[in-house]
Amino acid sequence: MHTIILAIESSCDDTSAAILQDGVVLSNVVAGQEAHAQYGGVVPELASRAHQAHIIPVVDLAIKKAGIAKSQITAVAFTRGPGLIGSLLVGTSFAKSFALSFGLPLIEVNHMQAHVLAHFAEDPKPSFPFLCLTVSGGHTQIVLVKDYLDMEVVGTTLDDAAGEAFDKSGKLLGLGYPAGPLIDRYAQEGTPRFPMPLPEIQGLDFSFSGFKTSILYFLKREIALNPDFVEQNLADICASIQQGIITILMKKLRKAAKQYQINEIAIAGGVSANSGLRQALTELGAQEGWNTYIPAFQYCTDNAGMIAVTAYYKYLKGEFVGQEVGPYPR
């Protein structure tokens, strides 16, 4: 009998559903939300309402794309957290209702753990133990991965995440939301000729609040001298900001690799879609003799495929939850 899992992801503003069969992702459908762009960030109330509108069509499409019948599903998985509570409630409630209707076991998944295990959706796959740099709008962590379900966070941000540094910097430049992909695009056309001060934080932890503040003061100073400074130097400014953030990330990752004597190195999370970061990891890996792993783009941003992969390993261990389960925002 095949193990077929329906997975739901609704932690932020993307509604996603996936079908996995015996560890292989058959479909991975994502519906985004464009309404937040005009506000410069995700509006929780709008996000939860959009999830309610999207979740049934998205699940239906995922099942059709996988070529299975609902009666063949053997378990239902969902993102329990962390994330926006209203968004999580939609996915959690749908998953619980679906599981109850069909008498199926229920599997809760930690969103950050799923980002790490996205590496097991496709080949090549890292060997244990490996280090994974997980970078997104809400989190920046270095995770020591000992097994599929045995992970330890060995470094984390003390304040803001790398993705937030991208988005807030983009807002200062007058770019739209999300600004990370826009900075990446402009950076490819520019030269990182503006030096950015890098924070000196002990250990393997990160800090990006001071970096953002330094960009604010840098722009204020330059604009006071030349009101058209941003427009005339946008590509070079973006390249400088991107290089600064990537330098911070790579410095800590190299330190962790040396500290733990590990050469299996991976990145994950929404910011792992950044072309500069992907190139920097590849180049540093070649220099350090690492085996590096970068997920396909569809598994970088929030998606149910990674939830399904994580749920599969929990299914094999019989790690199920009851109908009393609720979401956790943190």
Topology:
Layout lengths: L3 E6 L5 E7 L2 E8 L12 H23 L8 E7 L3 H18 L3 E5 H7 L12 E6 L4 E8 L2 E7 L5 H11 L7 H8 L21 H17 L3 H32 L3 E5 L6 H14 L2 E3 L10 H13 L14
Parallel strand pairs: 1-4, 4-5, 6-9, 9-10
Antiparallel strand pairs: 1-2, 2-3, 6-7, 7-8
Terminal Cα separation, in Å?
Answer: 37 Å
Ranges where pLDDT stays below 50 over 5 or more residues in a row are none
Rg, alpha carbons: 20 Å
Briefly note the structural class of the backbone: alpha/beta
Query: What is the strand content?
Result: 15-25%
Q: Which architecture of the largest domain does the CATH hierarchy give at level 2?
A: 2-Layer Sandwich
Work out the count of structural domains. 2
Mean pLDDT comes to 95
Indicate the percent of residues in helices.
Answer: 40-55%
Widest β-sheet, arrangement of strands: 3-2-1-4-5
> How would a crystallographer describe the biggest sheet?
5 strands, mixed
Succession of helices and strands: EEEHEHEHEEEHHHHEHEH
**Number of DSSP strand runs:** 10
How would the global form be characterised?
A: globular
CATH superfamily of the largest domain: ATPase, nucleotide binding domain
Number of helices: 9
CATH topology name of the largest domain, in short, is Nucleotidyltransferase, domain 5
